[in-house]
Specification:
The chain is α/β, with parallel strands linked by helices and 269 residues long. The protein has a single domain (7-263), classed as Rossmann fold (3-Layer(aba) Sandwich). 26% of the residues lie in helices and 22% in strands. The chain contains eight helices and eleven strands. The chain has helices at residues 19-28, 38-43, 70-79, 81-89, 99-107, 171-179, 239-242, 251-263, and strands at 7-12, 32-37, 53-56, 94-97, 122-125, 133-141, 154-161, 165-168, 183-188, 210-214, 220-223. It has a nine-stranded mixed sheet with strand order 2-1-3-4-11-10-9-6-7, sandwiched between helices. A hairpin with a 5-residue loop joins strand 10 and strand 11 (220-223). Helix 3 (70-79) packs across helix 5 (99-107). The longest helix has 13 residues, at 251-263. 47% of the residues are buried.
Length: 269
């Protein structure tokens, strides 16, 4: 008997504005997608167990009134910590994109305990250039344990953020991220080499050019670039000059998660 397609929960709140694009990406990758306001999940936290993938999309949750992602993260940390722990323990993947990455970092789900430090041990600070940046960037995969970026060597994706500069709490946390294989993507030059901290290839001044990280399980993944905005080749501004068609590079990220769920024991499909 063929397995059913996994179902992705797209968790949204006031200010979320990339939920439909994220749902579309998962559907192209072979999953079903359902959008749910966080207030409905707070009313019935057990509903989370009915899903196999969780996505926190981009936008400006609660207007970023305190700090980017802080209020949304507080809701997860104080009211949904146990359901989220069970979700991850069951082998189910979680992704946070742009504002969703900020939420996962502020909540402490990313990167998880490192160098003896739990809770918030890194942050996404204001871009080093001091302004909002909206353009395309080159990315290089760094292997490691992240299931979302497995097999991905290079990507070109759009960014749109004002607070995307990844900063670990200290040198011990920075080193542990690399030692544990939790750096999933870095900003790169067009030839695939590391950006070396220099603009415009590193658009925000992130330490070690870090654009995306995972937790120690490899299941929880956050990144500032938007893979859901490049699931079709025609979404790239240079697609006519390149003469390309078909899938956009970002779709591979979502396909990896769907493939993992279909293969993982205890994923609930």
């Amino acid at each position: 008997m063929p397995r059913m397609a996994p179902t992705t929960l797209i968790l949204r709140t006031a200010g979320t504005n990339c939920d439909r694009e994220t749902a579309h990406a998962f559907e192209l990758a072979g999953a079903r997608a359902q959008m749910l306001h966080v207030n409905r999940l707070l009313e019935r936290p057990g509903v989370l167990s009915e899903y196999q993938i969780l996505a926190i999309p981009g936008g400006f949750s609660y207007g970023d009134d305190i700090a980017a992602g802080r209020i949304f993260a507080s809701q997860l940390r104080h009211h949904l910590a146990e359901p989220l722990e069970r979700f991850i323990a069951a082998g189910k993947p979680i992704i946070g994109i742009c504002n969703g990455f900020q939420v996962l970092v502020q909540s402490g789900l990313l990167p998880g305990e490192l160098a003896g430090r739990a809770g918030r041990n890194c942050t996404l600070a204001l871009n080093a250039c001091g302004r909002f940046v909206d353009r395309w960037v080159h990315l290089a995969g760094r292997g490691g344990r992240c299931i979302w970026t497995a097999g991905i060597e290079a990507l070109e994706l759009p960014i749109a953020h004002g607070e995307g500069r990844f900063v670990p709490a200290d040198e011990a946390v920075r080193l542990a991220l690399w030692d544990n294989g939790q750096v999933a993507l870095i900003y790169a030059r067009a030839d695939g080499s590391a950006a070396g901290g220099a603009e415009p290839d590193n658009p925000n001044g992130s330490v070690d050019d870090i654009a995306g990280i995972c937790d120690g399980t490899g299941l929880v993944f956050g990144l500032m670039p938007h893979p859901e905005r490049h699931v079709d080749a025609t979404q790239h501004p240079a697609w006519t000059r390149r003469g390309t068609g078909g899938e956009g590079g970002g779709l591979a990220v979502f396909r990896n998660a769907v493939a993992h769920v279909l293969q993982a024991v205890g994923a609930g499909v």
